[in-house]
């Protein structure tokens, strides 16, 4: 999944996101799931036949939930960090390949930034 765009979010992850923010599954009707929450003015409708979820559906759901795109990604990353096998149990830092951009956000490659061997 891209960290900058609301595309390529699988249906399973979007369902988990909706349940994480307090929405309840109300049922399926003709290939569309209905998710509700007491404070919402209208239900969130999700296509069950489209995975990954189209970006406009995610944007409409976020608008209805009064959340930003940043909130969405923060919630998804919190979900993923618990079960991420790429986190080192000793240092609690991501396990990275040398040619990837560094996780600290510096914009440098990992081996030049935080991946340097310290003497």
CATH architecture designation of the largest domain: 2-Layer Sandwich
Mean pLDDT: 75
Q: How many structural domains can be distinguished in the coordinates?
A: 2
At CATH level 3, the topology of the largest domain is Metal Transport, Frataxin, Chain A
Low-confidence stretches: 79-84
Order of helices and strands: HEEEHH
The CATH superfamily of the largest domain is known as Hypothetical protein
- Widest sheet: strand ordering: 1-2-3
Indicate the CATH class of the largest domain: Alpha Beta
Radius of gyration: 18 Å
Count of DSSP H/I helices: 3
Strand content: 5-15%
Helix content: 25-40%
Shape: elongated
Structural notes for this entry:
This protein has two domains: about 10-85, 2-Layer Sandwich (Metal Transport, Frataxin, Chain A), CATH 3.30.920; about 85-119, no CATH class. The chain has a three-stranded antiparallel β-sheet with strand order 1-2-3. It has helices spanning about 10-20, 55-65, 70-85, and strands spanning about 25-30, 30-35, 45. The chain has about 120 residues and is an alpha+beta fold.
